[in-house]
Every structure is written in C-alpha cells, then in structure tokens.
C-alpha cells in the first residue's frame, strides 16, 4: 500500500493530535457561524414568501408629548389596510396608532351587529403587544359602562420588528393564520393590526362613533403572570402604604389547564378580605402598565352616517 | 520528506473541511427548545407545562362587562406557532375576586367540541385561568368563550354566544 495515498497514524500521540485538531476545527467553525449568518433561522412550517418592498417607517420619529392628528394618507408601513381611505393617525407617548375603515357588520349566525375599525399600532419589540384597554362613545355617550357591554379584537396582521433584515409576518384570514418571512428595509418597524369592534347595543342609532385606545400592553405569557418585578412592585407599593398585606404568586395546574397571577397571601386580622382586595387591586393596573404598558389615549372619531 | 508533506496537506485539508462542517452544524432555534408537543399531540395538555406559552401570541379577544362592570372578564384566544396549538384564557378584570372559567370551542357545525377550565375558587384581579390546548388538525376555526362570576364554580363548557365569545379565528 502506498503511504503517500493513505498515511496512517502510528502512535497514540498522533491520534490525540488528530482529536485535538478535530475539536479546534469544529470550534473554529462554530465561532465563524455568527459572521456567516445572513438571516435568522426559520421554523420548518414558516413559508417563505416573495420578497416585497416594505415602505419606510413613519416619518415622525421624535417623541411628542401631546397627541397629534395627521391628515389621511396611505398606511405608513407594510400591508395596506382593507380600505385605505379615511386613515387617522395619532402619536402619543412616542407610539403611533392608526384607525381606518370604520364599518358595521352583522354576524350571520346571530344577527348581532359589530361596529369598529381597523386599528394598527407600532410594536416596540417582538413581544405579544395588544390593545389592552379600549372604550367607545356613541354620539358622545360612553357605552363602556353600560349594564352589559362587550368589545373585542380580531387580528388582521402582525409584523414583528425585523431581525437581520427579515420580518416575520402573521396573517389572519377566514379563521386561518399563516406565517411568512419578508425582507425588510432598514428602519422598518413592527406593527400589529386588529379589527377593534364593539357589540352594538340593541336599538343603537348613532351618527358619531369615537373609538378610544386607552392603553397598549405586552400580554404576559402564562408563565410570566407573576414576575419578580411585577409582584415585587405591588408588594413595594403595599408596603409604602403600610397596609400589612403580603402578596404571592399563583401558578396552578387544573386538569390540563391552569391559573396564574398575583394574589393576597396574608393580611392583618382586623382587615376584611374585601378591604384588602380593594387596596391591592387599586394598585395592580398602574403597576402593570408602568412595567408592561403604554398609556394613551389614542382617540379616533368617525361619522358613519355622513 | 514527501510523506510528511502529504500528511500536513491532509491535516490542513481535514481542518478546512471540519471548519466548514462546523459552520453547518444546526443549532435549534431558541423558540423551539422548550416546546414539548406539536399539533394534535398538544390536545388536552397544559400550555405552560409544555412550554407552548413561550412564543404565544394573542388572537381574537373579547372583553365582557356585566352588572355595570362589576363582573368584567377579558377572554383571549392564545396560539403558539412552535407548538401549532391554541387555547383560551380568561382574565379577571372585575373590581373584586371572582370565579372564572373559559372554553375553547371547535369542530362540528356549531363548535360542539371544547377544552375548558373553571376555577375552584375566586381569583384575583388580573389573575388568569387558561384551558388545555387543542391542535388544529381536525377543525378550521375556533371560538374562545369565557366569563367571571361572584358565585361558582362556573359550569363548563361556556355556552356559545356572541356576548361572551370571540369572533371565529
């Protein structure tokens, strides 16, 4: 056998040398990976879509302390709304929210009417940002405090903030969600759009509708309903009030489902449960919004019968 | 001398190949590390225990206010791309502790199948209950329904209604 073609290690030292080289080489390759990567990994079920130009981010990037309203213009980024006319855009607390395409629709099964508009807002990061609280005025009357009232959201599209020039897009249509990756131009922001609607009360006859997005927030994951920051801040506020109330975390499992959050675990004997809850619950929303929310309001008024 | 030179060339070639190989060794994506099920294998299981909440996003939602806001619940459809599964979550937004319950309904002509949850006792403001998951292998859409009440436990499943349920999605 020709040694020139098939060199063989003849000692333990040679074998160890080869193993060492193997380790160094693989480590070197792994170290080079980040510099060679051009785009984030994609899940197997994510569909690669055709590359599509993404319009630039909203023009006004500077923070403005007071709400501002801009005239109607084409949707500033990404997928156009179902109807491009009549878009209202407001920037509050450095966050832009738009509303367009006000409509009244009827559920074919129940004949319940829903009235609402397509509402879009900027995403600061890829967490699960949602419209946290909204309210509605019909002809100037707040219907949110009615004896019975309900409103909802139906997602239209979520565009996560781009990573390495790629943007993950979730689209919703006919009860189906699809995901895809698209190329994103520098400066493109994430954005979520929902149909924000309220169930029209019986007999309602309105000439003017005001939709108010009160707050946006990161919707906590089930396992993050009681973070140290959240529970700690509530406890801090309770201590500041010298309430004697102690809170703790709940994370329970019930036959496949479960429960999570913050609850009272101790209180002074003289204090009723109702009194303790009143003190604690009054703090919770503010603490939550301080940590995870953006306060508005973003106010949009439509005159549907004009 | 010739033999040594060839061995070195061999080692260099080997190293170059392995460096190239190292760049191709697949890393699991971060969001796939904790998922313990996929699709129909998630049905009936806990979304948090299985890690499906790690990438969860909120689908259709409904905020339901009764008794002038005394009983207020936020009903959400939650879904995980990594697990290809979804579930329902009800958040108590009332002024006091309330019993809470929720159902994710699917299948048939009128969403007759469900996964449901009902709290055995009152839960705090902003506390949630969430149902087991379902995998979307055998249905086209779902509706999430939920409510809170001063007495309980609340019977489940939550009946299908426009008032307490999200739009189909």
Structural account:
- The complex is a heterodimer of chains A (306) and B (169).
- The N terminus of chain A is likely disordered.
- In chain A, helix 2 packs across helix 3.
- In chain A, strand 3 and strand 4 form a beta hairpin.
- Chain A folds into two domains: 183 residues, Immunoglobulin-like; 70 residues.
- Chain A is of the alpha+beta class and 306 residues long.
- Chain B has a domain of 116 residues: Apoptosis, Tumor Necrosis Factor Receptor Associated Protein 2, Chain A (Sandwich), CATH 2.60.210.
- Chain B contains one helix and seven strands; from the N terminus they run αβββββββ.
- The N and C termini of chain B lie far apart (74 Å).
- About 8% of the residues of chain B have low confidence.
- Chains A and B meet through helix 1, strand 8, strand 10, strand 13 and strand 14 of A and helix 1, strand 1, strand 2, strand 5 and strand 6 of B.
Short description:
The complex is a heterodimer of chains A (306) and B (169). Chain A has 306 residues and is of the alpha+beta class.
What percent strand of chain B?
Answer: 25-35%
Shape of chain B: elongated
Query: Mean of residue pLDDT of chain B?
Result: 84
Give me the strand/helix succession of chain A: HEEEEEEEEEEEEHEEHE
The CATH topology of the largest domain in chain A turns out to be Immunoglobulin-like
Q: Can you identify the CATH class of the largest domain in chain A?
A: Mainly Beta
The total strand number of chain B stands at 7
Measured distance between first and last alpha carbons of chain A: 95 Å
Overall pLDDT score of chain A: 78
User: Rounded to an integer, what's the Rg of chain A over CA atoms?
Assistant: 27 Å
Helix amount of chain B: 10-25%
The biggest beta sheet of chain A is recorded as: 9 strands, mixed
Top-tier CATH class of the domain at 34-149 in chain B: Mainly Beta
User: Strand order across the biggest sheet of chain A?
Assistant: 1-10-9-8-11-5-4-3-2
Order of helices and strands of chain B: HEEEEEEE
Largest interface: A-B, 77 and 83 residues
* Low-confidence runs of chain A: 1-7, 28-85
Q: Choose one word for the global shape of chain A.
A: globular
Strand residue percentage of chain A: 35-45%
- The oligomeric state of the chains shown is heterodimer
């Amino acid at each position: 056998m020709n040694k020139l073609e098939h060199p063989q290690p003849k000692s333990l030292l040679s074998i160890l040398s080869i193993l060492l080289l193997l380790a160094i080489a693989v480590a070197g390759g792994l170290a080079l990976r980040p510099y060679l990567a051009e785009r984030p990994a994609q899940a197997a079920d994510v569909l690669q879509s055709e590359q599509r130009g993404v319009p630039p981010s909203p023009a006004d990037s500077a923070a403005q302390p007071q709400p501002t309203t801009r005239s109607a213009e084409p949707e500033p980024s990404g997928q156009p709304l179902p109807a491009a006319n009549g878009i209202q855009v407001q920037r509050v607390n450095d966050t832009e929210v738009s509303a367009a395409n006000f409509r009244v629709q009827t559920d074919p099964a129940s004949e319940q009417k829903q009235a609402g508009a397509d509402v879009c807002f900027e995403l600061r990061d890829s967490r699960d940002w949602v419209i946290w609280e909204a309210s509605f005025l019909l002809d100037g009357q707040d219907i949110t405090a009615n004896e019975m009232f309900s409103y909802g959201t139906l997602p239209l599209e979520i565009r996560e903030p781009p990573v390495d020039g790629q943007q993950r897009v979730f689209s919703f249509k006919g009860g189906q969600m699809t995901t895809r990756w698209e190329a994103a131009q520098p400066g493109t922001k994430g954005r979520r759009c929902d149909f924000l609607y309220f169930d029209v009360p019986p007999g309602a006859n309105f000439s003017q509708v005001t939709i108010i997005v009160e707050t946006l927030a990161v919707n906590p994951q089930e396992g993050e309903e009681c973070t140290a920051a959240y529970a700690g801040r509530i406890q801090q506020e309770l201590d500041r009030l010298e309430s004697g109330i102690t809170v703790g975390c709940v994370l329970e499992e019930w036959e496949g489902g479960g429960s999570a959050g913050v609850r009272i675990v101790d209180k002074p004997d003289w204090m009723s449960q109702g009194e303790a809850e009143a003190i604690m619950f009054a703090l919770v929303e503010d603490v939550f919004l301080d940590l995870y929310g953006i306060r508005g309001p973003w106010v949009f008024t439509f005159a549907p019968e004009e | 001398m010739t033999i040594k030179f060839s061995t070195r060339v061999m080692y260099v070639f080997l190293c170059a190949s392995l460096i190239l190989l190292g760049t191709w060794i697949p890393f699991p994506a971060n969001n796939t590390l904790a998922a313990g099920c996929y699709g129909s294998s998630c049905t009936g299981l806990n979304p948090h225990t299985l890690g499906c909440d790690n990438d969860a996003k909120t689908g259709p939602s409904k905020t339901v206010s009764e008794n002038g806001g005394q009983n207020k619940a936020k009903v959400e459809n939650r879904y995980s791309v990594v697990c290809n599964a979804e579930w329902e979550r009800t958040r108590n937004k009332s002024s006091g502790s309330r019993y809470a319950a929720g159902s994710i309904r699917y299948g048939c002509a009128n969403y007759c199948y469900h996964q449901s949850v009902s709290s055995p006792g009152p839960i705090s403001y902003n506390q949630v209950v969430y149902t087991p998951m379902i995998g979307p292998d055998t249905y086209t859409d779902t509706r999430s329904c939920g409510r809170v009440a001063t007495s309980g436990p609340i019977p489940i499943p939550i009946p299908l209604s426009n008032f307490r349920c999200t739009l189909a999605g």
